[in-house]
Amino acid sequence: MQSQRGFSLVEVLIAAGISVLLAAFLVSAAHAFAGWSRRASSIVDAQSALDRLEERLDAEAAGSWSVFVPADDVLGDANADGHEVDIATEDALRRPSFRAYRYDAAAARIDEYAYGAPGSAPVSTGDVTRGVVAFTATAGSASALAGPLFARATIVDAEVPSLVGDPEATGGNRLVRIAIAIGRSTRTLTLASATAPSRVTVVLRYTPAP
After folding, report:
1. Closest by alpha carbon to 179, among 82, 72, 86?
2. pTM of the complete model
3. Distance CA 126, CA 129 (A)
4. 26-68 residue pLDDT tens
5. Is residue 73 part of a domain?
6. Residues 60, 99: contact at Cβ < 8 Å?
7. What is the H or E stretch that residue 50 is in?
8. What does the angle CA 97 – CA 99 – CA 104 come to, to the nearest 5 degrees?
9. Three-class secondary structure of residue 75 per DSSP
10. In this structure, is residue 55 part of a structural domain?
11. Which pLDDT score is estimated for 163?
12. What is the pLDDT of residues 117-171, one digit of tens each?
């Protein structure tokens, strides 16, 4: 009769050690994958939030009378740091209407408000963009903010009187540049109103001349 040899204590300890190492590796890999998945999801969510906010700002500005950075925000706080940008439009009856995008750094969010005229009581629209870690709006003339695309162009700054006589809400080709960060995603927007002059002349140099 053949005798069967069992495992020695050393072999059992080695097998147990290998099992523990393998289990630790698998747990570590699972944690790493979960962390990567959360980061990827966070990046996608931030990009989506930026896309939605940019679409709203672009749509509002495209049909607006003016885009401007007021001296004081809709809640009466000083806006020297550019935490709010406002957009002036008209409704179907040609009545002035304003929309404000106000960044609350403490709450990490942008709240949107509507109001009838500068200084009037704002009403929250209920639209909120969350997870915002930075927002700065800078207003300036087209000649100052146009950027490298128009480096060789001669830009003449033009103004269109405000709908309500408020010099802050003057239309024309004033531009507002906005820097936004949501999570780790950042974006810079340049907004112009519908009253901005849109005629562009392009001069081509032919060789030889026609």
Report:
1. 82
2. 0.73
3. 10
4. 887 777 767 666 666 777 888 999 999 999 999 999 889 999 9
5. yes
6. yes
7. helix 9-62
8. 155
9. coil
10. yes
11. 77
12. 888 899 999 999 999 999 999 998 776 666 665 666 666 777 888 878 888 888 8
Which residues face 111 on adjacent strands?
102, 128
Please list, residue by residue across 54-91, b when 16 or more beta carbons sit within 10 angstroms of its beta carbon and e when fewer do.
eebbeebbeebbbbbbbeebbeeeebeebbbbbbbbee
Asked if residue 70 belongs to a domain, the reply is yes
Residue 167 lies in a domain: yes
- Domain hosting 68: range is 50-192
CB 122 within 8 A of CB 73: no
CA distances from 90 to 60, 93, 194 (A): 11, 8, 12
pLDDT in the model for residue 159: 80
Q: Which residues pair with 160 in a beta bridge?
A: 171
CA distance 116 to 135: 24
> Residue 184 corresponds to which amino acid?
R
Judge contact between 57 and 189, C-beta under 8 A.
yes
